Amino acid sequence: MLYYLSLPFLSILLVILQSTITDVIFSGRLVFELSLIVVIYAGFRLDLIRGSILAFILGFVFDCVAGSVLGVFTFIYVVIFLCSFFASVRLATEKIYIIALFSFFCAFLKELMVILFYYSAFKFDVLINMYFVLLPQALIVGLFAPVFFYLMRRVEVYLYEKAV
Amino acid sequence: MFLLRKYKTAIFIVTLFVIAVIMFSYDLKYRAEGSFFRKIVLEAVAPVQRVLSSSVKSVSDAWLRYVLLVDIEKENKNLKNKINEFKAALILYQEGYLEAQRLRKLLDLRDDYNYHFISARVIGREQAALSKTILISKGAAHGLKTGMPVIAPPGLIGRLVDVSWHVSKVLLFIDENSNVGAIMQRTRTQGIISGAGPRGLVLKYISKTQDVKEGDVIVSSGMDGIFPKGLLIGQVSHVDRQEASLFLKINVAPFVDFSKLEEVLILSSDEIKIK
User: Fold this and answer.
1) Which residues, in sequence order, are bridge partners of residue B118?
2) Is domain B117-267 classified as CATH 3.40.50.300?
3) pLDDT tens figures, A3-35
4) Which of A53, A61, A72 comes nearest B41 by C-beta?
5) Quick check: B20 and A71 CB within 8 A?
């Protein structure tokens, strides 16, 4: 129960942290999508209910903070979570290059869905950003995801040892 | 009921998707009005964002200040280097200015006396204790001859004693071997000026009956056949009326500071050219 209660607050913190890092490091040109990496991690580690709720809430908070159409990232994050969840059954999710490649793929997929949504809803031609924004952003996610996974594994080990 | 239990996870996921679809459909249709949930989230985000932003801002400000300080240090170094360069240039210009002033004085002197002059630079000084001579940068090749008078602002300094092709030696009249015919400007009393080394000059053969005061100006008399008449020599600095002697003992301070000589003029001809 504590998990579900703390989720909204942790999601808010995560999204704010993400936007702050983005501002500091990339000066707003690119978005460092830590929340997406968390969703992928949840897909690899959590069960379907807990993970999908996490993805839903994280996406919702991201929608609210980012100012996009409410529900778009909520929808996309749940899709990404499901992809990660079902991929974790078949992929060796312990390997760094698998994590990196899969995260890159997910980031790319997410951006594609966003582009498609905005194109179908508002007829925005956002394909021009493909090379300058979409690919670098996916690359950043792909590179940073193994680091995040490693850190989280260390935290898990620490918490497990403490519990024992 | 059985189906509901069996597919509860799938139903839950589908429900999430349906909620998301409803949300963005609603938002697309009534976007201008804003969503209640969005407002709640934004209200929750604002204080946290403010705290995080201010702390990040203070860190980034500190970093920027550090970077700025590093830049300022570099700039300071460059500016100091530039100041040193400018100082060196300024010294050169000052040197040039002083030289120009000295040369102007020489030219003024030339105008005053209406003689034919050759200018030369002082290139060396005799370091012996008893000999007071200087070396100048011109010689026989420039028309100089032994015995020619040498002057520097504001007056006489000596005569040429050795003339080489391109270098000459000037015997300063403060040398103890030097004697110049002199006359007191105020009383027109004539005497001989002799060098006294570090003490300057001594005016000899002036009778005790003569009126001599400190500050009287001494000029060349022209009687010695070497120095033209009227060149400034010095002024009386001390008069000693000794009982046992027939003459006054008069110390004369030369007008020229011999330690600062850099350029001199040589009277190259005996003929005086009147403008």
Assistant:
1) B266
2) no
3) 788 888 888 888 888 877 777 777 666 777 888
4) A61
5) yes
